[in-house]
Amino acid sequence: MSLANRITDANQLQEFSISTRQSLNNKPPRTSSPEPTPQKEPVDLILLQPLANRDMFNKCRDRPCDRFWGTEEDLNIQPLGKAWRQALMRIPPIPRLVFDVALPSLGESEKWKRVRKLFWDRADTCAGQEGFAVCVRDVTTLVITIATEMRMRAGGDVSCEVRYDETDEGLLTAMKVLERQLLAISMADTTSVEEKGDMD
User: Where do the segments described as Disordered lie (predicted)?
Assistant: First the structure.
């Protein structure tokens, strides 16, 4: 995977789309074109990496904690999802997407000194933890939404995959279900995908 195809923030998508099409066509792209971006390699969306950015992190801190097994705070990733979806809608569809759902490190810098770690919102990982919980269902819903929108806009010929920590046994069930859903979206005809989008 080329670093040029590794997108860690929604703001990088416009520049990526322009540079990709210019390199292939040797001319500026028409951003209004509905045609998929014709890159050969898949594009990695490092979906949760923007949480390591203080501004985005703070935008996601508006959900009250309703857990009883720890002292963590739940993050609301709707602002994060909105940023990704809006940025993706401004560029041509990407035919090959890999959703990397790894939890980012908040780093050791001074500005993050009071911020604790991120973890998935499961009883086995939340017990006794002090930090910020990311809802697995919220993440899988975001992935499905982006994949469905991409498929509808492209009119077909879209392949989506998910990358995750396969050593985390607590994630396996949810991720296996997500893999099947992404495969179904990739193989579905355009009409059925549009109907799914309408129901959502």
Answer: 15-42
State how far the Cα of 200 lies from the Cα of 193, in Å rounded to an integer.
Answer: 11
Domain range for residue 17? 3-199
* CA pair distance 36, 139, nearest whole angstrom: 24
Banded model confidence at residue 47, pLDDT cuts 50, 70, 90 = very high
Q: What is the pLDDT of residues 72-81, one digit of tens each?
A: 678 999 999 9
The count of structural domains within the chain is 1
Tokens representing 31?
């951003």
For residue 183, how many other CB atoms are within 10 A of its CB?
13
According to DSSP, the β-strands at 118-120 and 43-46 are unpaired
- Calculate the alpha carbon distances from 87 to 70, 133, 184, 194, 197 in Å: 35, 25, 24, 21, 19
Distance (Å, whole) CA 74 – CA 134: 6
Residues 7, 44 contacting (CB under 8 angstroms):
yes
